[in-house]
Amino acid sequence: MLTRTLPPEQWWIGAVISGIALMIAIHPIATTAKKKLFLPLMPLAGGAFLFIDTAGDESAYPVVWFTVIMLTFVVLRIIFAPYLSRQFALVRSGQQMQPLTGRQGAVFWCAFLVIMVAMFIVI
Fold first, then answer.
1. DSSP assignment of 6-51, as one string?
2. pLDDT at 67 exceeding the cut of 80
3. Rounded to 5 degrees, what are φ and ψ at 80?
4. Is pLDDT of 110 > 90?
């Protein structure tokens, strides 16, 4: 772990940065103005709930989990960018997105698990 000596106050800085990184990563996913407004609210709502829930808590573990999950989704967005680009091209051309196959879902969840474990080891 590269950051095992960080106090909870410094983990909050990482949580804010990871939340902003996720908002930047998922912003292109939104196709309408309404979605562009509401999609970034997901990490903000999660961060607000986390802040309220951990007020006065000496442990940094919930904030570490939040940071790792946000960064995991950012990495997944980068890894699966070609697939998402193809899906969004279909939507822009007026067609429906292709349904996710079982194999694609398994690849996503395996990648999610591997990346999350790697983040916990590195962070």
1. --HHHHHHHHHHHHHHHHHHHGGG--SHHHHHHTTHHHHHHHHHHH
2. yes
3. -95, 15
4. yes
